Amino acid sequence: MPRGWLLDITSSRAGDTLLLWIRERGGPVHRVEVPFLPPFYVTGKEDRLRELGTLLEPRPDVAKLGEEPTLASLFEPEVPPRPTLAVTPSSHGRRRRLATEIDAWGGCTDFRLYDVDVSAPQQYYAEYGLFPGAPVAWSGQQLTALEPAEEPEYLPPPLKVLELSVEVVGARRGRPAEPTDPVARVLLGEAVAEEESEKATLLALVEELRRQDPDLLWTQGGDQFHFPQLYRRAIASGLGPEEFHLGREPAPFGLGRVGSSYMSYGRIYHQAPAFPLAGRFHLDMNERFVQDVSLAGFLDIARMSRLGLQTVARQSPGTAFSAMEIARVLADGYHVPWKKNLPERPKSARRLVAADRGGLILTPPVGLFEEVDEFDFVSLYPSIMVEHNLSVETLDCPCCPESPHVAPGLGYRSCTLRDGLVPRTLRPILSRRRYFKRRKKETTGTEKERYTELGKAWKWVLVTSFGYQGYRNAKFGRIECHEAINAYARELLVELIATARSAGWEVVHGIVDSLWMLPPPGGDPEAFCAEVSERTRLPLGYEGRYRWIVFLPDAEYGLGVPQRYYGRFHDGEFKLRGIEVRRGDTCEFVRTTQEAVLELLGKAANGHEFRAAIPRALALGKARVDRLAEGSWPREELLLTQRIAQSLEEYRLLSPTVAALRQLREVGIVREPGQEVSFLLMERSSRDWRRKARPEQLVTGEEDYDVQAYAELLARSFATLFAPFGLTEERVLQGWGYPYRAAPTPSVRDHRSLEYRGQRGLWGAT
Question: How do residues 104-155 score in pLDDT, each as one tens digit?
């Protein structure tokens, strides 16, 4: 039997079969077509199901109907099997449309539907014990996985990766590409497709793809520009999917797809329309998730979630976690409900106040501390869910009225007789991440880098596993679970603070699952972690000891901000939160300057040396501003980036962002809410939207820029770092010889009363 790796499973063009793409060891990629039309299930009263069957039987989009009992619902295990109608659509694409009609016929109340939104590849993976990237042996259409998906040490499929980039006729600095611009040439790895005519260039690209046969194409903005431009120009050249295709077989161009804007954790994001490929992967490096996770991380998440690589890269980490829950439900013999029907329980106002709270957060003192230890519970919230068996079907179960797992202050009980869906899904993920973190410490070089990337990928999934418990659209989420997790976490941190103080530690700061503490003489942080971990059965980790750490104030009141600090560990590593180098809207001019300042400060071994370095840091900033004033600073390093919160018509003030958007619209480029716009500040105070700022696409490199505006941005970054020492944006600018045009911030005066209190204490301004 030949052996290889199962790369992906996609639907055929007809939609009634699946295509299995298998990379043979040392050989080519095989395309194996298998018939697979899974049904979805409808439950309800017998007479209503008979009536429904009569309506569906003559329809051409229904391939098969069958009556069969199903297992009890995950949410109602004590309910016996109910009359069920199995409906098999004639194609995968008709599944949701048919289910929507059935639901409407039942008035959205008579029928309960299952497995509607579980894709055919997901069901195939579950039915045959397969997963993306699985090492397989196969004979004909029969595949056998050679290892379980949970195996942490495995040989990933050898993917051939190439970059694809499109250049259009007339493209140059100061002139954005337009949909009507012909394709001049296409770069594919080191190869170039460039012929005398556009049609010949496009056909040369197809031939080059066939010759090199890459498994994965990565682009910078492929979904937004490169792929739609290629497809538009193929149509203009008279080429159809049979002649021009970027996958391993023809597929519709899909130019009718549109992007969407959505809100996540208070921020607007934009999802460009996807252009997945048949038998080949496409990763757009501009996608939000792709920027944070490596290819190795995506392959590992796809392996565990049974979602294709292209789906994992384009969806949120929460989607991957939901897919893992679905895989677990299917493996247990249950079916997946289509629409969630678990409303929040009625609560009194007093009960709501007690329940609707987050984690415990302390207000840190403003200033510099020396020799501070940082402790952090490893994946605290997921660990709490596992330890206390918190899941949608185990909370307040009728079988365990005397359960010892009771959420503090809320009274929610957890089942002790059966393991919940969420803990069963999380347990292998936690085990996997702990393994990768351990291997990271044990290895070096490329191995260490790989384990680092794998652990980072799973961190995102674990973070969203908690958020999804309170997400209203989460299929297996429940707000009471979210409240119980927070309650356990608050009590845990309070107990940890009391334990630390009794052992002689001095608590400086705390955020939800982390503590910063001054150690007692001879204090052993590793022993402290081991003791707490054994007692709480939750893993407390030791992050390290800082040489120094600076907690920063807010601009209005001067109080410490929990997530604004910077410090350097004894091993030389920095930890930075809430400052300019961590912000996505910081221009390179400010970012690189602040990085240079941090490198300078990083040489300080203690508070005295830190303070002595401040004048040198200010001198470094002045030198950069003086060079800026010469007018020759590279314009690309002065570009500011802003995320658009609303449509252009909804803005009322002429900000630089609005000025840039108006200029883009003038040349036919429309930015949607959630997308970003980058621009150069030319005359910030101008009322002329053509002079105020210029969008990146129209920058030629010859424009004048607003020196004062960029000097203020840089001074603000210095005031961020040195606010506890009495330095304000005004004082920094004056020291550099620039005027200050804003009113002084009252809160700064509050900092000036701070004094240095001993070698390990707070060091503020004098």
Answer: 999 988 998 999 999 999 999 999 999 999 999 999 889 999 999 999 999 9
User: Residue 416 corresponds to which tokens in the numbers above?
Assistant: 């002790």
Boundary (domain end) residue, out of 269, 303, 331 = 331
Q: Put the strands of the sheet holding 161-168 in their side by side order.
A: 191-193, 183-188, 161-168, 216-219, 281-284
Overall domain count for the chain: 6
Give 262's contacts (C-beta < 8 A, 6+ positions apart): 268, 269, 270, 271, 674
Do the strands 216-219 and 161-168 form a parallel or antiparallel pair, or are they unpaired?
A: parallel
> What's 16's DSSP letter?
S
Pair (523, 667) in one structural domain: no
Predicted pLDDT of residue 744: 42
Q: Are residues 20 and 45 in the same domain?
A: no
Q: Are residues 586 and 624 in the same domain?
A: yes
Q: At a CB cut-off of 8 Å and minimum separation 6, what does 401 contact?
A: 413
Do both 383 and 487 map to the same domain?
Answer: yes
Contact 312, 119 (CB under 8 A): no
Of 273-282, 346-355, 522-531, the one with minimum mean pLDDT is 346-355
Q: Report the CATH number that the domain containing residue 403 is assigned in CATH.
A: 3.90.1600.10
- Each residue of 477-491: b (16+ CB within 10 Å) or e? bbbbbbbbbbbbbbe
CATH number of the CATH domain containing 140: 2.40.50
The 8-class DSSP code of residue 395 comes to B
Pair (78, 63) in one structural domain: yes
| 168 and 194, same domain (yes or no) | yes
Mean pLDDT confidence for 64-93: 79
Domain of 56? 40-114
Tokens encoding 148: 């379980």
Q: What is the CA radius of gyration of the chain?
A: 29
- Whole-model pTM? 0.86
- Measure the CA–CA gap between 200 and 651, rounded to whole angstroms: 45
**Quick one: how many helices (H) and strands (E) in the chain?**
21, 25
**What CATH number is attached to the domain comprising 185?**
3.30.420.10
At residue 761 the predicted structure's pLDDT band, cuts being 50, 70 and 90, is very low
CA 25, CA 5: separation in Å to the nearest integer? Answer: 8
Angle between helices 479-502 and 380-387 (to 10 degrees): 110
- The per-residue pLDDT for range 578-591, each reduced to its tens digit, is 999 999 889 999 99
Answer with the one of 704, 737, 760 that is the final residue of a domain.
Answer: 704
- The answer to whether residues 59 and 25 belong to one domain is no
Residues 560 and 552 sit within 8 Å (Cβ to Cβ): yes
CA trace torsion 471, 472, 477, 480 (10° rounding): 90
Residue 159's alpha-carbon distances to 24, 133, 454, in angstroms, are: 11, 10, 17
Q: Is residue 339 part of a domain?
A: no
Alpha-carbon separation of residue 321 from 102, 380, 424, 434, 485 (angstroms): 28, 17, 12, 17, 17
Tens digits of residue pLDDT in 642-696: 988 888 888 888 999 999 999 998 888 888 888 889 999 999 999 999 999 999 9
Do 511 and 519 contact (CB within 8 A), yes or no? no
Tokens 């590279």 belong to residue: 634
| 461 within some domain | no
Say how many residues make up the chain: 766
What string of H, E and C letters represents the secondary structure of 509-544? EEECCEEEEECCCCCCHHHHHHHHHHHHCCCEEEEE
- Structure tokens, 93: 């694409």
Based on the fold, state whether residues 629 and 738 are members of the same structural domain: yes
Q: Tell me the residue type at 249.
A: E
DSSP state of 345: P
Q: What does DSSP say about strands 112-114 and 40-43: parallel, antiparallel, or unpaired?
A: antiparallel
474 in any annotated domain:
yes
- 185-206 b/e (C-beta count within 10 Å ≥ 16 → b): bbbbeeeebeeeebbebbbbbb
Determine how many CB atoms are found less than 10 A away from the CB of residue 398.
7
**SS3 category, 392:** coil
What is the spatial distance between Cα 436 and Cα 417, in angstroms, rounded to a whole number?
31
Query: What is the rounded CA–CA span in Å between residue 213 and residue 380?
Result: 44
Does 437 fall in a domain? no
